[in-house]
């Protein structure tokens, strides 16, 4: 059975879903419907549970067929202390893709996604203050630190690691995806079908929120329902709301939190 040979490891809320879907448009690429597999996460964390053993993990990729590039897209790997070495031990020739976004914008996007679904009760500023003072590995603050990139660079060679800047690739997606296909040893490129992911909406009722928040239900939906149909259903169950804007005061407050990491 073939095993993954490239990993999209994050950052979360830096366009990784769209990036994975774009790469997956090529017939020589296989990324399974199930995203966020979490297999190489060994740190205990509520809501994060991957396959229990290697056999179960590889079973997720059983439909890879003749694909040249087989990918695991799990953004929790980015800030995990254990993931880089575990992935290297699994396949030392793995290709690693990291997307980088302005830390404040990324944190706000992560907070907004959880707040709109009912996961997060605190305001953005208070949630960031909480996470800045927290020792948790996976949170709005720690997930946006660029210092994690150095951990990946220490584990993987330069030719097997690519850092993609969010602001660049959303402007020229075809150019960046072509470069990544080449990075994944795919010589012939195709024209992308441009899509838009992660449009803002709020869960319309408590039942909807409960279903969305359940990992098992989300994985079943991703596995058996095509992306195009998921989008149509999503628009029906999410109320249209104007996206809350990040205030300049909160932006400056959070910016200072990240600046402390570099001082």
Architecture of the domain at 6-102 and 143-199 in CATH?
3-Layer(aba) Sandwich
Q: Report the uncertain regions.
A: 199-209, 227-238
Strand elements, count:
7
- Report, as a whole number of angstroms, the end-to-end distance: 48 Å
What does the overall shape look like? globular
CATH class of the domain at 6-102 and 143-199: Alpha Beta
> What would the CATH topology of the domain at 6-102 and 143-199 be?
Rossmann fold
- CATH 4th-level superfamily of the domain at 6-102 and 143-199: P-loop containing nucleotide triphosphate hydrolases
**pLDDT averaged over residues:** 86
Physical arrangement of strands within the biggest beta sheet: 2-3-1-4-5
Q: If you compute it from the alpha carbons, what radius of gyration comes out, rounded to the nearest whole angstrom?
A: 18 Å
Please report which band the strand proportion falls in: under 5%, 5-15%, 15-25%, 25-35%, 35-45% or over 45%.
5-15%
Q: Helical segment tally?
A: 12
Structural class: alpha/beta
**How helix-rich are the residues, as a percent range?**
40-55%
What is the N-to-C order of secondary-structure elements (H for helix, E for strand)? EHEHEHEHHHEHHEHHHEH
